[in-house]
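job 3f2a | input accepted
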Amino acid sequence: MNKNHSEDVLRAIEPVMNRMEERHWAAGKPEGYGGAGAALAIALVVMQIKLDDGWRTASLAFSALSIPIWIGIAQISSLREMWNVNHKEHPALSKNVVSTSGFFVVAALMLFTAVCCLLASFSTLIAALFLVFGAVVSAFVMRYLLQVQRVLFNHR
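job 3f2a | predicted structure (156 res):
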């Protein structure tokens, strides 16, 4: 990553970094372990069922592969707590915020996909409804996020 791009990333995440407190970072630990636990639960359920179709195999794969990512998120949060890392004082570490956020998104999408595949192995209608409701809730959350950003940062 070149220096200009790195500075652009830091400038782009600065409004978020200025609002982040240690308690926000600490929240990543239970989220990471909770995601790993949910993924493990799905993997164990799928392993109890005969893997006789592609949906169940995909569900097992997505849930199992997301576990290390979730644990990584928890470990990053633990390291921040243990070393009392303040990203405002150490801007070079701020670049990791983008990576950690990306890991969270990937792990969450993998967990969502694992649940969807497991549902599809029993009923494609239920899986389709799960996708639709997931999309509606995601759109609502994104809309709310944009409203909050407009209010907080006076964007029109």
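job 3f2a | The mean pLDDT is 83.
job 3f2a | closed
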